[in-house]
Amino acid sequence: MRDNSPVRTFRGAWSVAGLVAGAAGLATSYFAAMALTIRESPVVAVAELIIRTTPGAIAEYLISVVGRLDKPLLGLGILIALAVVFAWAGRLAARTWWAPAVVYAALSAVGAVAVATQRASTATDQLPVAVGFVTWLVTLSLLTEPLRTADLTVETAGDPEAGAHTRRVFAIRAGLLVAGAAVLGVAGQVVGRGRRHVEELRNLLRLPQVTLPQVPVGANLGIRGVSRWMTPADDFYLIDTSFVKPAIDPEDWSLRIHGMVEKEITLTYRDLIHRQFTEAWITLNCVSNQVGGELIGNAWWSGVRLAPILAEAGVLAGADAVLQTSESGWTCGTPLSALTDDRDAMLAVAMNGKPLPIDHGFPVRTIVPGLYGYVSATKWVVEMEVTKFSDITAYWTERGWGEQGPVKMSSRIDVPRSGEEVDAGTVTFGGVAWSQHTGISGVEFSVDGGEWTAADLGAVPSEDCWVQWSGRADLEPGDHHVVVRAIDREGTVQTSVVQDVLPDGATGLHERDFSAG
Fold this sequence. Notes:
single chain, 517 residues, alpha+beta, Sulfite Oxidase, Chain A, domain 2, Immunoglobulin-like, 5-stranded mixed beta sheet, 5-stranded antiparallel beta sheet, disordered N terminus
């Protein structure tokens, strides 16, 4: 006998009902978050919770595999997982009303925990989670009501028109809900104009103390294929843990400096930009940068030095660290000595002569020459606690990374590229080298295991930026191999010992294989 039960006849419809209800809940939750000007919708909060709780070694491996696609792929993975759960919840509704409610409650609990663990979370931030949960229950009930009440065993088997009517009702309701979800999604984008508003403010912002960058004479050696000495903001590497970048109106920004100080200080944006500015060429280098990697850039940074501000606060004896906190909730522990010595450690407000891009920390970020970003370069910085390393942990140090994070000397071959074929005869080599807050005194390269040859160096204005290098060698046709090493201003030669990026930066010599013909 043919099975005409609702579960069998409308099995696909129950799954569709679950998917449509799930999408409607996500849409209303997103709209609520945008309407309340909450930075993180629950889905984004979950994504950032995953980022925060992923062990450092796993995070490092994933970044090395997918690069800048890590966050888009994470978002896609979350949506796919949710789609599977939503379809399953719809199937469960075919048998009992309470099972989908349990599934939705579990999903809402995960969202609520993720939201609650965000920095400065309040009860208001939980409202989008509640809105999504209620939407799931209501929309699933609306969609499954015609399926549940259809007496297919009696009516549908004997009256095909009754089954068709049930399908029409279901299709109409599903279509209306999908359309409504799409409208809410678009409306959320319209309502959530925070980033666009901040971008407009940024474009209108004028900082008279900020000057346009002038690349020093002789810094660019003019070797085709070698990285530009000044890295444009659009090409500057981006590594952070924020799934959605904070968009902060400068009028709403402030920095609280507290802890082991004689006097707590709170700086507003207006306070900051009316102080004396400093400007400098500074190279930033991510600790995740492999030998020869591209997670490095050189820019003209403008801002206010931190040393006078900390002196004004009056650092107490025994302090050796500053715990920095971002608006996104990210933290890092910075050696106090690096913020109070003669280097240009600063609260930066401009990059390459323009206000910081939002993705690079607008309105204010921290720049500390000579330290990897994971212990110093706090984007959207809002809090600094003067403290002791023995009393704190921070985002990356909790995941096994080193505490101090000094940048290690390194060098890179930009030309020729690996696998490239060049003309035999005189071959030009070139690249960059760096040893921030120490400086580079020389670069040497070796071809096919031969003697080390001194390279020509470009001019540099300080020890805190990278230097271009170039050299030439006469080569016969065939396959060749080139290695480079740097020498800092203290006479230390770059080590050939290979070390991974964990726990405090990679070491080893960069090399390339190429052919001449």
